[in-house]
Amino acid sequence: MTTRQIHPIERESYRRLRSRLDTGHLPPLTRAVAERVIHSSADLSYLDDLVIADEAVLRAAAEALAAGAPLVADVEMVAAGITARRALCRVRDAKGDPATGLTRSAAAIRMALDEVGQGAVWVIGCAPTALEELLLLDARPALVIGLPVGFVGAAESKAALRASGLPAVSNISEKGGSAVAAAAANALLYPDLSTETGSDASPDHTRLDHAPLDHAPLAQDVLDAS
């Protein structure tokens, strides 16, 4: 995890966020992910929309990144938003195959897996087909941040991610995007603002009292590439 200087404007932004939304019950990394997603979108409703892996899973992913595990993004906007370290993105080099229905985003996932192998952290914030393709491959990820956006395939691909049993951060609705996906990744790379006040929550699971037990929610920047 990276230490950084926090600008006063950012600190004030988080203060205002917390004045409107109570996240103090969440475990530290869970809180970091949730707050960074909300901060990047100014959308408080994400607290009821996010589905975040157990704290131990997030901790393992953060430790894997700190030890040098590969970080892969589906599109360049996601890669650009991850500021603590370089993320691999192969969408510029990939080519889709209209005859088979393979999109360029899905082809880029195949290329990236060939390059990085198993154990990477995958950050998907644009193309549902990229997430769908990842689920078909033997990637054995340390974590999948699956927050693609759109009216076609986004919610369905995220539901499939949750059903897969892979360690993941996702959300239930169609919303998502590059900014929130990059924000979730940044939370694992430098969770400073969200962990500085600590938390008394149990790390075993994260859900609101009213949340269904089976998916435990916490609270288009571009069309699917072809």
Explain what the structure shows.
By secondary structure, the protein is of the alpha/beta class. It is 42% helix and 8% strand. Helix 2 (28-41) packs antiparallel against helix 8 (178-189), helix 5 (104-116) packs across helix 6 and helix 6 packs parallel to helix 7. The protein is globular, with a radius of gyration of 16 Å.
Please describe the topology of this protein.
Layout: H1 8-20, H2 28-41, E1 50-52, H3 55-66, E2 71-73, H4 76-81, H5 104-116, E3 121-124, H6 128-136, E4 143-146, H7 154-164, E5 168-171, H8 178-189, H9 192-195
Parallel strand pairs: 2-3, 3-4, 4-5
Antiparallel strand pairs: 1-5
Shape descriptor = globular
The percentage helix is 40-55%
Query: Largest beta sheet, briefly?
Result: 5 strands, mixed
Report strand %.
5-15%
Instruction: Kindly provide the radius of gyration, computed on alpha-carbon positions and rounded to a whole number of angstroms.
Output: 16 Å
- Overall pLDDT confidence: 86
Assembly state: single chain
* First-to-last CA distance: 34 Å
Count the E strands. 5
Continuous helix count: 9
Q: What is the strand arrangement across the widest sheet?
A: 1-5-4-3-2
Class per helix and strand makeup: alpha/beta
Uncertain segments are 193-226
What order do the SSEs take from the amino end to the carboxyl end, as H and E? HHEHEHHEHEHEHH
What would you say about this model in short?
The chain is α/β, with parallel strands linked by helices and 226 residues long.
